[in-house]
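Both lines are quoted verbatim for reference:

——
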Amino acid sequence: MKAIVILFFLFTGIIFSQSIDGNISDYVIAMNESNNRNQNQNTNQYIISHNIVKIAQIGNFNQANLTIISNNAYVTAEQTGNNNYMNVYKKADEINQSYIQSGNNNYISDVSSSSYSRGVESMKVNQEGNNLTVFSTGSNSISRDMIINQSGNSGTIYVFNR
C-alpha cells in the first residue's frame, strides 16, 4: 500500500511539474524573435567583413563565370533574358564592379591584366538589347570608374587598357 501511495505522489508531481504558466505560443514567438535577431547580426557582420559577389539570373540558359581575387570586393552581376553569358576575371586590391545585361544572346568578357592590380578597380557595364557584346581587358587610370552603356541590337564594344 505504501508503494502505491508513493507512486501516486510521484506521478502527480510529474504532471504538475510539466505545466507552464502563460500561453506557449508567447514563448515560441519570443524564442523565434531572439533567433532572428542573432541571425541578422551574424549576417550583417559577415557582409561587413567579407567579399561579396551577387549574381541574379532570370531567364533560360544564362551563364556567369566569375573569378574575383581581392581583399575587398563588391560585385553585382545581373542577367535578364535568355542565352546571356558573362565571363569575368578580376585580381585587384579592391574591386567594385557592376554588370547588367537585359535581353537575349548578350556577352560580357572583362579580364584584368595578369599582374595584381594595385588600388581600386571600379567599372559598370550595362547592356540592354539583343546580340550585344563587350570585350574589356586590362585596367589603368583611364578605365577607373568607367561606365559602358550599350543598347540596341547586334553591337560590339572593345576596350583595351594597358
